[in-house]
């Protein structure tokens, strides 16, 4: 692949790079179709009151989520995990990354918004932070599980 700004954020492994590029391209095409449908519906006032900001955020969310989900479910995230020992080591690493994510969110939020002064503010801080770290854990764990299964199948062949 020709080196561009995108190549700086893609993996060095040629197979992974190619697969992720396919995922990005598929999501861009789907996004373009959805935005075209939105424009047609909005133009004929069938959609009702819609704000473009919400649509832009949903579009951005889709453009980020689609390749992430495809990458997670494809089984290419952990190509080096081929045995049980390495699998369990990666589970511990995933847990530690999720815990780090939780701590960083809590620290960042506390620095930006101040120390919570009552129980409601504490739950408003801990709840979303815990949810985000749980999502990070689940995405990584599913990717690991799919990769391990795929790697084992490739070794059996």
Task: Describe the protein in words.
The chain is mainly α and 157 residues long. It has two domains: 10-74; 84-156. The chain has four helices and no strands. The protein has helices spanning 14-43, 52-74, 84-113, 119-156. Helix 2 (52-74) packs parallel to helix 4 (119-156). The longest helix is centred in the C-terminal third of the chain and has 38 residues, at 119-156. The chain is flat.
Draw up the topology in text.
Blueprint lengths: L13 H30 L8 H23 L9 H30 L5 H38 L1
Helix pairs in contact: 1-2, 2-4, 3-4
| Main beta sheet strand tally, sense and closure | none
Please trace the helix and strand order, writing H or E for each element: HHHH
Count of helical stretches = 4
N- to C-terminal distance: 29 Å
Count of structural domains: 2
Helix content: over 70%
**Any low-confidence stretches, pLDDT <50, length ≥5?**
none
Shape: flat
Query: Got a strand count?
Result: 0
Q: Kindly state the mean pLDDT as a whole number?
A: 86
Q: Based on helices, strands and strand pairing, what is the structural class? A: mainly alpha
Radius of gyration: 20 Å
Quick rundown:
The protein is 77% helix and 0% strand. The protein contains four helices and no strands.
